[in-house]
Amino acid sequence: MLPTDFSPRFAATCTDAAARCYAWIGENILLPALPEHAASPQPATPSFSLPQADALISALGQPEADYLIGDRAGQACRLLFWPQGDAPDGYALHNLRAVHGSLDEGDFWIAARARQLVSWDREHRFCGYCGTATFPAPNEVARVCPNCHQRHYARVSPAIMVLIKRGRQLLLARSPHFKAGMYSALAGFVEPGEACEGTVHREVMEEVNLRVKNLRWFDSQSWPFPHSLMLAFIADYDGGDIVCQPEEIEDAQWFDIDALPDLPTRASIARRLIEHVVSEMRAA
Ligand SMILES: [Zn+2]
User: Fold this and answer.
1) ipTM
2) Domain residues of the chain, as ranges?
3) Which parts of the sequence belong to the Nudix hydrolase domain (predicted)?
């Protein structure tokens, strides 16, 4: 989650040299390299710092985007973006997901906001209505078409997640792109016209052929890969036998809460949801 001392703001230019800096080359975040003895950061031990904007600009040249994206405890937060290139000496590029636990938790989620704004910026270079090159609005997350004046906003895609309970068991599934051995709760995007509760019932039926009841709200979380808003529910099993949806679900099983498989990263709402339900079931 974004830290409570952070306020989102936007300006299409930022020249504050003292700003907290979230810098990207393509899809990867650029961070100062760790000293050699710390090259394998331990999870839950924040060890990365944020880079200095001026040093990066002198090494890489003017960025394609240099935006103010908010402030944290009164300090400006600045997004720098270069579409391609290598990390300059003394820096390294990282997949954002991989630095969770090694970057301050608040900075991780501000970086997650930055990453979504990078996606928005890259996806709306040209107007979808008339094809003219767009430019960023000065004080709003919108790219504007100078020809037809259409405004193109950052996309946020709502997606549901649902953890299904049956006795002491949880229904967990894996999709073909998961790392080997990892299982998670079911998830899927909300269709236009659908309420998220309807999405839960539809996705559960499509993906594993089960019926569920007693939907309970758990929590929501932004997931910037690339721009999802995860809406997490808990549900009880109501009937049906597991049939996995071809190509979407490689395997789905009922797991006893004392024999769970590998679970998703601690940065994910899936992990929090599963751990919450397991501790609730143990306490019952
Ligand atoms: Zn246009």
Assistant:
1) 0.99
2) 6-123, 157-283
3) 153-277
pLDDT at 38 over 70: no
| Domain boundaries 157-283, corresponding CATH code | 3.90.79.10
CA of 140 to the centre of ligand 1 (A): 18
Tens-place pLDDT, residues 76-132: 999 999 999 999 999 999 999 889 989 999 999 999 999 999 999 999 999 999 999
Query: What is the pLDDT, as a whole number, of residue 242?
Result: 98
CB-CB contact of 117 with 153 (8 Å) = no
| The domain made up of 6-123 is a member of CATH 3.90.79 | yes
Ligand 1 centroid–CA 133 distance in Å is 8
Does 6-123 match 157-283 in CATH topology? yes
Q: Beta strands 20-25 and 75-82: pairing type?
A: parallel
| Sheet order of strands, 65-72 included | 6-11, 65-72, 75-82, 20-25, 28-32, 91-94
